[in-house]
Write a structure and sequence with these properties.
This protein has 9 helices and 4 strands. It is α/β, with parallel strands linked by helices and 158 residues long. It has a single domain (4-152), classed as Rossmann fold (3-Layer(aba) Sandwich), CATH 3.40.50.1010. Strands 3-2-1-4 form a 4-stranded parallel β-sheet, with helices on both faces.
Amino acid sequence: MSLQVIDSSVAIKWYVPEPHDAEAIRLRTGGVPLHCPDFLKIELAAILWKKIRRDGLPRLEAVNILDDLAKIAVNWHPSDPLVPAAFDLADRTNRTVYDCLYLALAVQLDGVMVTADEKLANLPIQRHSSVPLVRAAFDLADRSNRTVYDCLYLALAV
């Protein structure tokens, strides 16, 4: 099984009801090693802050989510060494450096990036590139009536 790099669009679904949250929770508890840059903690805090402001998420619930994030079984990787590769990917794909941190980690680990962000999943990446072609496993699962587990491995390196 390929290792999987998850981004914040997947991690938030572990805590807040959203489409495909059940699949995200199964991914978290499925026994497959999950990896992410430590930047995910910052990005998830920003998402929670927005959910407090826009959606009325109680602040205490957001604080509890951030506390729980520190306890989950995820392999954390320092973001700093990923910045040059993320910058290069961002320049080539016209996505943010933030998004490309996850992609750079997937490339570095020769793994698969799992995202629920449709724009990120549909990056126009050249076939001759060493960058993995990212797929929206959650969206594909929804459209095909298959499990996310079935769809995860469609996002293989090209």
